[in-house]
Specification:
It contains 4 helices and no strands. Helix content is about 60%, strand content about 0%. By secondary structure, it is mainly α.
């Protein structure tokens, strides 16, 4: 099994951007711009999420957001 979550082998950046943005929207957090998400691609998700401006710093909510973002990444990868 090969994972390419940083877009090195295939162009998965669009799926990452959508996954992060949809997750933030679902959790009622300020939705980051495409540029903000792209600037953080490659940073581990659980490190990346608290770095966004005005996002919650609640560890349990951030963990739930990380889990949900991964679900979105997987769903988007299957649909394309």
């Amino acid at each position: 099994v090969l994972f390419d979550v940083d877009g090195t082998l295939i162009d998965s950046v669009g799926q990452i951007v959508r996954g992060i943005q949809v997750t933030f929207e679902e959790f009622g957090q300020p939705v980051p711009s495409d540029a903000d998400v792209k600037a953080k691609v490659g940073i581990p998700l659980r490190v990346q999420l608290p770095q966004y401006e005005n996002v919650t710093q609640d560890p349990s909510l951030l963990e739930a957001m990380a889990t949900r973002a991964i679900e979105h990444f997987q769903a988007f990868a299957r649909s394309e």
